[in-house]
Amino acid sequence: MYDALALFHITRELKRLEGGGVSKIAMPAPTDVFLTIKKRDETKTLFFSCNPSAPRVFLCDDRRDSPGAPYAFLMHLRKRISGAYIEKIESVKHERVVKIHLSSKAQLFTEEKYVLYLEIMGKYSNIILVDGEGKITESAIHVSADTSSKRLVLPGLAYSLPPKQEGKITIDDEKEFFEIMRGYDGKESAHNYMLKHFCGFAPLSLKEAVAESGFGKGGDEEISGLLTTMRGFFERSEPCIVKNGNEITDFLPFPFKLCPDFETKSSLSDAAREYFSQKLEIGVESAKKNRLAAVIKGAKSRNEKNIGSLRSRIEDAKDAEDLKKYGELITANIYKIRRGMENITVYDYYTDSNITIALDPTLEPAQNAQKYYKKYGKKKRALETSESLLAAAYDTADYLESLSLALSTAPGDGELNDLKREMEKTGLIKVNNSKKPSREQTKPRKFTVDGYVVYIGKNNLQNDALVKSSDGGYTWLHTQKIHG
Fold first, then answer.
1. Contact assessment for residue 11 and residue 89, using Cβ atoms and an 8 Å cutoff
2. SS3 readout for the chain
3. Does residue 300 contact residue 400 with C-beta atoms inside 8 Å?
4. Would you say the pTM of this structure is higher than 0.90?
5. Residue in 411, 409, 403 with CA at minimum distance from that of residue 429
6. CA angle 282, 286, 290 (to 5 degrees)
């Protein structure tokens, strides 16, 4: 949870970097920056990201390399602040903005001042380098007049803080705080009311303040208690992660009464890193699963259309035997037919009744018979081919259904990779030949039942692995058309 409260506590941890020097700058992604900071005999890594789906900043021990072709912002940072000295790190009060003050030696030993702004603000997050005159030298994300009418972020422009939310104040103004809270009428939850009037706090922080202070219907005594509680949040520090079973649902600067299932950490950076590690891992896994699901869905749609088309062709070819019969009846009655006739009524010895057969008046009687025989042959071949293709299409539908179920029950990244490789082998996914194929493969599941060892393959790759590793002592069981 990166509200101004959490960022205040994170910044307090970052202050240990003051006095250190920037020894290395890396950008593995266009929105992610790793600064390696050396201070005496200690080396720390400061990580920050303006990725709109997961903006974050914390200390870590990771060492990352940049891509072969470095990003323009990375080159700019290296030129300006590589080797720079960190003078001060601070957060903008009640804002989700961190300021890193840097001093860098330029040519002829002159000193240049910079401020690196880390704006951790959801989809509006950014990383901006500002020179000593307050002008933007470069940013991770450019914001032009085409994308924003409130604030431009472009090289050469004067830097300004993100615009304040209209109608909201900070808790520093005690008089105004009391006036606003006296206006609370209880028609909505207190934290929702506060969210509309105060900046810097996430909904969960406001709910916790209401719960801890015991704020109810209002009154100056309750309002005073609420304000004291909120101000006290900035003094308390016992970093933790919030859990729901094995899932980490949030990270906090101190345990909240509203979140009883928590686990304390040595620092808020550790808590944030652990939270985002799981969140991004789940996000990557979910994105991979969604991509595979989209491929399977598309293949299902195309196969269903193919089945519909084949059924139509089979239905259309069902009169093939009638065409053969017409040819035979024309041949049997050829002596009655003259060129120029448009039809003829003859005795149908198949049904013991008369039947009228259409004729092409431009053809000879024998040619009319041949015309029906040719149509019969064409439709018979189409029927045989279509029936064969339809059977294959039904098998494909069954296979795609098995893939869908395997995907929905895939427990982790390993089995998702198995499914991806299988789909590449079957041509559902185009193989990228420029990438080296991964040889890692998940193993079939292993159980012991009544003293017997049981191996279960959850996908075709695992089934193949079972076959290749089996011997004469195996007993095989296969479920036909029972997926999963």
1. yes
2. CCCHHHHHHHHHHHHHHCCCEEEEEEEEECCEEEEEEEECCEEEEEEEECCCCCCEEEEECCCCCCCCCCCHHHHHHHHHHCCCEEEEEEECCCCCEEEEEEEEECHHHCEEEEEEEEECCHHHCEEEEEECCCEEEEECCCECCCCCCCCCECCCCECCCCCCCCCCECCCCHHHHHHHHHCCCCCCCHHHHHHHHECCCCHHHHHHHHHHHCCCCCCHHHHHHHHHHHHHCCCCCCCEEEEECCEEEEEECCCCCCCCCEEECCCHHHHHHHHHHHHHHHHHHHHHHHHHHHHHHHHHHHHHHHHHHHHHHHHHHHHHHHHHHHHHHHHHCHHHCCCCCCEEEEEECCCCEEEEEECCCCCCHHHHHHHHHHHHHHHHHHHHHHHHHHHHHHHHHHHHHHHHHHHHHCCCHHHHHHHHHHHHHCCCCCCCCCCCCCCCCCCCEEEEECCEEEEECCCHHHHHHHHHHCCCCCCCCCCCCCCC
3. yes
4. no
5. 403
6. 175
Residues sharing a CB contact under 8 Å with residue 307, sequence separation 6 or more, in sequence order: 390, 393, 394, 397
Confidence check: pLDDT of 213 > 80: yes
* Cα–Cα distance, 133 to 114 (Å, whole number): 9
Q: Which of 66, 256, 93, 235 is nearest to 164 (CA)?
A: 93
Identity of residue 62: D
- Would you say 478 and 463 are in contact if contact means Cβ atoms under 8 Å apart? no
Distance CA 127, CA 109 (A): 27
pLDDT level of residue 481 (50, 70, 90 thresholds)? low
Residue with tokens 């420029």: 434
pLDDT at 282: 61
* The residue type at 388: S
Torsion of CA 460, 462, 468, 473, to 10 degrees: -110
Go through the chain and tell me how many residues it has.
Answer: 484
User: Which tens digit of pLDDT belongs to each residue from 99-132?
Assistant: 999 999 766 568 899 999 999 999 999 999 999 9
Average of pLDDT values for 86-95?
A: 94
